[in-house]
User: Fold Oxidoreductase from Colletotrichum scovillei.
Amino acid sequence: MVTSLKRSPTRAILCIHGGGASPDIFRFQLAGFRAALKEDFEFVFATAPHVAVPGPDVLPFFAGMKSFFSWFRKGATDTEGEVAVFNEAIKMAVQDWQLENEHVKIVGVLGFSQGGLASTVLLWEQEVGLVPWLPRLEFGVLVCCAYSDVATDYIRSKSEGGDIAKISVPTLHLHGSQDCNLGQARDTLATHYSSKVAHVINFEGGHHIPQKREDITKMTNYIRHLGKKDTMHY
Assistant:
């Protein structure tokens, strides 16, 4: 009898949790998504640098999973400093992963809410060559992404001629029909992403990670087929 051995994934997705959450909470929120892609990807969870109050819908369900963290602090006046601290947190997560998993390359990023905004900053920094330590991200997944005028103004100030360079790697944007921040997600998409490679999946739900099987299937099918030349339809 021949026993077939399952290969471990050789690619990984960097996961950036929402504001007022944590890696442990994000692992739980992504359980269905991770299970669907367990043969395709490993998942790397970064920890935001600032202790924070719990984010929207974190309590009471995750009350026992303290502490809570955010990527950017509301009202912070030194935007460049905030981005530098954010970069260091991501760099630490990436380097820790690489030390233990040298044969599993980080190839994508997945962010939720404020983590989607953080992912946008990271993808833009990659676009203009500001994060040479970062493994090349081939795609991004943004779920119920936040928008920030402060982040946009920062990006504009760092852009040549004041014109914002659009993110050109393929991206998937998940928008909840009842999300209170749906307008923010659409603003971030329109402002920072190239329409040629950005794909939107709308799902019935609010400000949360999609949990329905059909939504997870759409997400995972898209990611598996990233890089193909044929246009995908859902």
Helices lie at 23-29, 31-36, 79-100, 114-127, 149-158, 182-192, 213-224.
